[in-house]
């Protein structure tokens, strides 16, 4: 069955291998290996059993189309150029990831999708600068030359900070998120190589041709606002946010966000207190198995009729077990569901040779009929709450190979395309494993924070670094607050989302700080009063706000596609990303600049005080007269 035509560039022969591997591993290991080979084709055959993978790819394609449409609608011809490079960029990222034997999983597929949004950031920075220069009355060639000069440092600094976050995740994170970190590194590198260099080359050739000199409307600007300096006209258009006082609005924004934090803290505290009082296991966040001891196993049958047809030809005990369970569950009667659960326990005891103490403490069953494909589906979820005292994986070995044990029992390896109708997975976490996950997550965040602060301190100044760090902490707290309020499960992919937002948010903040620094240099920043500094910050924010909003929207489009179209395994990750994106634009436009103003005010005061002390020392030295000349042999 052909589920999707895409630019993944897999060979047809290998896609069938991929399908079987995903069926057994995508939820248990969150990864599977794809191998790239030449020659390649553009059509990938994916079976229905790879539904999680298919959904993520479809979300990626939808996100890509949405971004292309947005870029062309806003920037016209430059948008077309960026769309061409974006498609090439996406293909090359996947090609390189396959060549190095990268591991794909829900979070890695999500990283590709998110990379689609972040890839256009370099183009948006350049195009917004280009339009700014055109609105000043410059010629197309002069405007482009000026925009390339002014946008370069912002693009490089923002991408370097993203690389720092990715490296922290790769070297200090768990193996299950290393694929995400690797993909983030690849997307960032290609962001600079393709989206920066190739896009600029194509734009340079277009501008040099002179074909758009008298067609500025094709560059995304409104001709009636473009002044003709030869006629003495002056600039009248200064952007969509010219009249917005961002510094003044900060107080209201902070109050609103503190209310959200307070609500999140209240929910978190309430659940923690309830968990401690009732011994229900509730904590301030809804931690998944990555962060607490426990285990789950799932069996998903997407086509029960095809499954039964296969086993009608084989002499295997419990060959009709799934069909019997479906019939019992489909009645909707509680008594019948109890019988169905007993059938599953009998299967575990007799077929897989479980001990009584190893049986699941909870069994969740659901059945449905797929009217589109005219087949029955059955989902079985086993929850093992009796392993919380296990100290290592050896004590729960009966679950470590659950997927292969079931596959071996039903001899699925001898069945062609068995992944068309069944997928099996398990997830196990001992107390030791859960503790290691928490420590790795904290270490990754701390290292990322520290490296970003050091880099920004070197490239800018420590006041910029501290303000950036506060903005990042704000973003992390926002994500935690939303997850606490809505009790969204926190899995290890949440750490990937947090680090991705750190890279994204610092990207946005650095671009704004770069504009502040640029305007400050032009206005002799150190010799103006506090009101003047606020005006500089407001001007920088007014200039950057449009770019920040478009970049956020372009990144949010594929994330939203992942939420509504993507696999269930990526939903929590995508929600965390979306919350972080929304939070990031507030922290970049309001929190970081306003805090920087406060820090810079203190820094300037200290500089002036030091200058006064130095001047006093010089004056005092002069008032005491010249120093006595030392003559060897006389007054030495």
Account of the protein in words:
The chain has 636 residues and is α+β, with helices and mostly antiparallel strands. The protein is built from 18 helices and 8 strands. It has a 4-stranded antiparallel β-sheet with strand order 6-7-5-8. β6 (362-370) and β7 form a beta hairpin. α17 runs antiparallel to α18 (571-623). It is globular and about 95 Å long. Residues 1-50 and 629-636 have low confidence and may be disordered.
List keywords for this structure.
single chain; 636 residues; alpha+beta; 4-stranded antiparallel beta sheet; two-stranded antiparallel sheet; globular; disordered N terminus; disordered C terminus
Architecture blueprint of SSEs:
Blueprint: E1 4-5, H1 12-25, E2 32-33, E3 43-44, H2 51-75, H3 77-99, E4 103-104, H4 106-119, H5 121-135, H6 140-172, H7 175-209, H8 246-278, E5 294-301, H9 304-311, H10 321-330, H11 334-351, E6 362-370, E7 375-384, H12 397-400, H13 402-409, E8 422-429, H14 431-459, H15 462-486, H16 493-522, H17 530-565, H18 571-623
Antiparallel strand pairs: 1-3, 2-4, 5-7, 5-8, 6-7
Summary?
The protein is α+β, with helices and mostly antiparallel strands. The protein has helices at residues 12-25, 51-75, 77-99, 106-119, 121-135, 140-172, 175-209, 246-278, 304-311, 321-330, 334-351, 397-400, 402-409, 431-459, 462-486, 493-522, 530-565, 571-623, and strands spanning 4-5, 32-33, 43-44, 103-104, 294-301, 362-370, 375-384, 422-429.
